[in-house]
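[step 3/7] fold_predict: job queued, chain A
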Amino acid sequence: MRKNEIRKITFTSVFVAIAFVFSLITKYVPGLNLEMPQGGSIFGFPMIPIVLLGFILGVQYGVLGGILYGVISVLLDGGLYHWGSLFFDYLIAFGLLGFTGLFKKYLFSPVKFVLVILFVGFLRYLSHSIGGVLIFGEFAPEGMNPWFYSFIVYNAPYMLSATFFTALVASLLRKKIIILSEQYGLLGTTD
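[step 4/7] structure written:
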């Protein structure tokens, strides 16, 4: 294994660990632990390291980091309501955040950087919402369309706030992340 690959694997592991710590903070610190009844945090702390990981190392490591975080998040949440939730709410949803790696060059453009984060946040929202219709449609109030309930009533409020919060904090960290990544030789590499 080449030195640069070991560095990338280490960097991925550290960013997944940071996402995990952020999820613990979000879950247990009063005021930050606001979430929807069946899950879904109002603040997007765990999204921040995953989207940055994709920007820094590319889509392969970004998606891998998102999936690894999804597995850890399942364990943290303590169980699943349905086996399909493993995919729609964890593996796919967080893996999609790593798609920022498709737009690595936009790390250097503040506006495009934010647009990419909003885009992957939207992809995560779609994953949760589709899963919500297929798996949790029964939780819709009587007489309410499950599609409307999942897409608008349940998932839109927390995903909007989490995505905008992630974009804001990641934007504040963007220049420092560029410097850190350049110091460790992680930007501009194609392997």
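[step 5/7] annotate
DSSP finds six helices and no strands in the chain.
Helices lie at 3-28, 47-57, 59-77, 83-95, 110-136, 146-183.
exit 0
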